[in-house]
Write a structure and sequence with these properties.
InterPro entries: A10/PebIII (IPR005055), OS_D_A10/PebIII_sf (IPR036682)
Strand content: under 5%
Distance between the termini: 42 Å
Keywords: Signal
Pfam family, one: OS-D
CATH class: Mainly Alpha
CATH superfamily: Insect odorant-binding protein A10/Ejaculatory bulb-specific protein 3
Number of domains: 1
Shape: globular
Number of strands: 0
CATH architecture: Orthogonal Bundle
Signal peptide: 1-16
Order of helices and strands: HHHHHHH
């Protein structure tokens, strides 16, 4: 019985480790991806090619999210992440490949 409680507590603790919902859940990914200017600014920030003033929160979370395929994400965050990655892969493939190469290597 004690072992079961320990396992449940450990499992519950792992599940509770998600990305900051205030930042990621409220982020309008669609607006960023659809705007060439905003997408380029965010991309340059991620790739260390430009300033990150507006996108620092993305730069702090994105590398781990891409590297682990969003393993720490809540279900809603995972859906948002998958939609973003699919959209980048289909519509902005060169940027998608650079992000994958940088953070999954």
């Amino acid at each position: 019985m004690k072992l079961l409680l320990i396992v449940m507590a450990a499992f519950g603790g792992v599940l509770s480790i998600t990305y900051d919902s205030d930042v990621f859940d409220k982020l309008d990914i669609q607006r960023i991806v659809e705007s060439n200017v905003k997408r380029r600014e965010a991309f340059n920030c991620l790739m260390d090619r430009g300033p990150c003033e507006k996108y620092q929160h993305i730069k702090e979370k994105c590398p781990e999210m891409v590297k682990t395929d969003c393993v720490k994400c809540s279900p809603s965050q995972k859906v948002k992440y998958q939609e973003l990655m699919k959209k980048l892969e289909l519509e902005h493939n060169a940027e998608y490949r650079e992000i994958i190469a940088k953070f999954r290597s």
